[in-house]
């Protein structure tokens, strides 16, 4: 089994230092775009939609926006970001020449992706509070869920990075995989409003349990069934994280 050592922190630290040098360009898209969506969908479309489960439409979509943009943040970091560092900047080659091994590099990349997801989710939550004003006290647990989400989607993106033939191949990943999740994981409408077949397929999408957990924490409506959602996320993290270490090692030692 591949192992990640404490040296992966150095890779995380390197990415953190780069981020703080470029934070104005790095942070702006993940701050401005969610505000536009919350305003346009919540106040625009929401004016024509009644209450959903006792919530306004704006209150309903906040958890989905938090979860989906955390997903996009981790994914961008471990797709385009990782590919550029691996193939164009040759950062991986330089790091592996030190005592840091391949598994440490990949682990550090995924841990940094989870950190970026956490930053994005916290910023959106602060913005959402300005719009909604009423969040359950359990919403303070969302950062924990977001870190797990970042590990899951960072690992999944890294698996795809290990097999992608070129940077343009990410168009397929985003268009055929992430975009359907964005629309069919309960972000913008309840899954019960969809055909039964679509509902069943949606429950196998990695984003769906995250949206469900975030919505429950924000509304304060916690049920025992949420443990199954959490278990599904943890299981995917173990499988995808281990797979990413194996497949990326194969690519890097060619």
Quick synopsis:
The chain is an all-alpha fold and 254 residues long. It is 74% helix and 0% strand. It is globular.
Give structural notes.
This protein is an all-alpha fold and 254 residues long. The chain has one domain (8-252). The protein is built from ten helices and no strands. The longest helix is centred in the first third of the chain and has 32 residues, at 57-88. The mean pLDDT is 89.
Give the key terms.
single chain, 254 residues, mainly alpha
Structural topology:
Layout (H helix, E strand, L loop, with lengths): L7 H14 L1 H22 L12 H32 L2 H6 L5 H31 L9 H22 L6 H15 L11 H7 L4 H13 L6 H27 L2
Helix pairs in contact: 1-5, 2-3, 2-5, 3-5, 3-6, 3-9, 5-6, 5-10, 6-9, 6-10, 9-10
As an assembly, this protein is single chain
Structural class: mainly alpha
Mean of the pLDDT scores? 89
What separation lies between the terminal Cα atoms?
19 Å
Q: Low-confidence parts lasting 5 or more residues at pLDDT below 50? A: none
Helix content range: over 70%
**What is the overall silhouette?**
globular
Largest sheet composition: none
Helix-strand topology string: HHHHHHHHHH
How much strand? under 5%
- Give me the Rg, rounded: 19 Å
Count of DSSP helices?
Answer: 10
